[in-house]
Amino acid sequence: MIKKLKILHVHNYHINKGGEDEYIRILKETFEKNGHEVTIYSKNNSEINGYNIFKILNALLFPIFSIKSYYEVVEIIRKSKPDIVHVHNVFPLLTPSVYWAFKKHNIPIVQTFHNFRLYCLNGLFLRNNGMICEECQKRSLLCGVIHRCYRKSLIKSLILFLTIYINHKIKTFKKIDLYIAPSLFVRNKILELGMQECNIIHVPHFTNNKLRNVNLHYKNYAIFIGRLSTEKGILTLIKAFEGILSITLKILGDGPLKDEILEFIKKKKINNIEVLGHIDGHEKEELLYNSKFLIFPSQCYEIFGLSIIESYKCGIPVIASNIGAPKEIVINNVTGLHFKSKDFIDLRNKIEILSNDIPLLNQMRLNAREEAKHKYSDLIGYENISRVYNSLISQ
């Protein structure tokens, strides 16, 4: 019998919704369905748009320790008395001050790695030119300031550097009792950075979407779901489809490269790509369910890849780049295919292989659904996270 808990999630939402925001929703719904009391303490970066000059100056001057966030947390603790707190993201508005408030009140702290922000200013080990970069890991986090890695701004990069550097020095992050790595790739990468092995555990993400029967009457299109930005590899994908005529590509998502993508499609007269914009809920799942396969062309160190396991639950195989967590989650020649990151010719070849080899495609559809059933169901995810929570509460 799993003890019913009072759980507090802490998250600084981004302006553009991403996978970590979706995963928090999944956690909340799953634990509430199982009788737990779940609260979310959050801020959203969109709040900055409404700041007056005094609030902007305050945000710039006090990013290391927000007194406001600290006392908001103290008040939440007083009212809801959580058994455990699960932190996801504290930058830039919440600040690491929240850890001090929770620890002062002896509340166990779990943190999920949704990015590499504690060791890389943009959180992706990615330079502004779209290349993988581990210079901060090998030399100093100050390299991220020199290269303006946070929002391409020298000032913002410097402020974030000071926030992370000082909080490392005063051992703020040591107050976290346990870190969760969604993939073995993330766990191993964090261990390379010097974190104590006993403080980090591998627990895969999961999704509460229901398993679907494998669809063998799919339509002749591949699908991309995600943000239209450089790190997601969308330009590599578009270039790959420039030379493909046998299958259509449906793109679900929005982002800064949308206009550039539309212009490229128009200029090259590519007629088999549809840019559908942001689509969610039942409509997104049906488009996924009726597709031949998902393409996940990310060229950064992805932490996980929720759209991959969403695809698996629909019996959809995945063509993924061979870096980061997707290389681990997509089993090559079993639940999908790997291609060399940023290599649009290799991606084109893999698309044509999976599109034309129907027996292979159909077997992969069966394999993908089995993978979802045995590794990424909401029941398995709930039990895994519950064990983490209870292990800390019982100490």
What does this structure look like?
The chain folds into 2 domains: 6-114 and 177-206 and 378-393, Rossmann fold (3-Layer(aba) Sandwich), CATH 3.40.50.2000; 221-375, 3-Layer(aba) Sandwich (Rossmann fold), CATH 3.40.50.2000. 43% of the residues lie in helices and 15% in strands. The protein is an alpha/beta fold. The longest helix has 18 residues, at 358-375. The chain is globular, with a radius of gyration of 21 Å. It has helices at residues 19-33, 53-61, 67-80, 97-104, 135-138, 143-146, 154-169, 184-192, 234-241, 258-268, 281-289, 306-313, 324-329, 344-356, 358-375, 378-393; strands at 6-13, 37-44, 84-89, 109-112, 178-181, 200-202, 221-225, 248-252, 273-277, 293-296, 318-321, 336-339. The strands form 2 sheets. The protein has a 6-stranded parallel sheet with strand order 2-1-3-4-5-6, with helices on both faces. It has a 6-stranded parallel sheet with strand order 9-8-7-10-11-12, with helices on both faces. The chain is built from 16 helices and 12 strands.
Itemize the secondary structure elements and their pairings.
Layout: E1 6-13, H1 19-33, E2 37-44, H2 53-61, H3 67-80, E3 84-89, H4 97-104, E4 109-112, H5 135-138, H6 143-146, H7 154-169, E5 178-181, H8 184-192, E6 200-202, E7 221-225, H9 234-241, E8 248-252, H10 258-268, E9 273-277, H11 281-289, E10 293-296, H12 306-313, E11 318-321, H13 324-329, E12 336-339, H14 344-356, H15 358-375, H16 378-393
Parallel strand pairs: 1-2, 1-3, 3-4, 4-5, 5-6, 7-8, 7-10, 8-9, 10-11, 11-12
Helix pairs in contact: 3-4, 9-14, 12-15
